[in-house]
Amino acid sequence: MRHGLRAASGAAVLLVTAVTGCSAGPGGPQASKSPSGPSLTVSPSASASASPAPSAPDLTAVIERTRSRLQAAESGGPDAPGPEGFMLAEAWPSGAAFVWETTDQRLCHVSYGLMSERACARNPLDPPVRTPTGVSPVGTLFTDGWVRLFAADHAEVVSATCGGEPVEVRRVGTAAGGARTLYTVRFPDYTKGSIGLRLSHDGTTSEDRLGLGDIGDRSCEPVA
């Protein structure tokens, strides 16, 4: 189902840069960034004469309201969260999305907004943890944009690109006993192709790609 996609805000940011590598096409407005907690920011230096950016909205109330709703719905049930609890994936003025791992190591995610969606894996550690390292798609979150949730196993994402240009990724939390780190990448609308990822692990770096799918007017094409 296609959703109305509006201006963005979100969770703790690993890397903040403009999504300039995607080919232009019909879609929702560009994202405005509003981290809900401490963040590491890597972006071009602003010009001394540039106008200050507008203040981001305070999303604390919507995050806590959505978390309380989620706790009431899931606590004590078969899909109740394990030790890591509910991990914030995205937040925007009218809703929020969370991810969690159940006590039997199944991943679940929910998005509460104008339309609500929820999904849980049927089997533990699905997708399987990759060894020695690697990335795997986990699911899609329909927030105020189109968000891909993915896992990096035995590694951390240090940068990401769309068509050779930097793209924002957000660190959500860990799962699988710490072997898996969950991330999101957000686009204003459906986007196809794949993003390039640079991973850090055991003191070294490597590269991998995350497939986005084959639907959308926007595209992240690999650069030769």
Describe this entry's structure for a reader.
This protein is mainly beta. 7% of the residues lie in helices and 39% in strands. The protein is built from one helix and 13 strands. It has one helix spanning 60-74, and strands at 87-92, 95-101, 107-112, 117-120, 134-142, 146-153, 156-162, 165-166, 170-175, 180-187, 191-201, 204-213, 218-220. Strands 7, 8, 11, 12 and 13 form a five-stranded mixed β-sheet that branches. Strands 1-2-3-4 form a four-stranded antiparallel β-sheet, with helices on one face. Strands 5-6-10-9 form a four-stranded antiparallel β-sheet, with no helix packed on it. Strand 3 and strand 4 form a beta hairpin. The longest helix is centred in the N-terminal third of the chain and has 15 residues, at 60-74. The radius of gyration is 17 Å and the shape is globular. The two termini are 34 Å apart.
Write a short abstract of this structure.
The chain is mainly beta and 224 residues long. It has one helix and 13 strands.
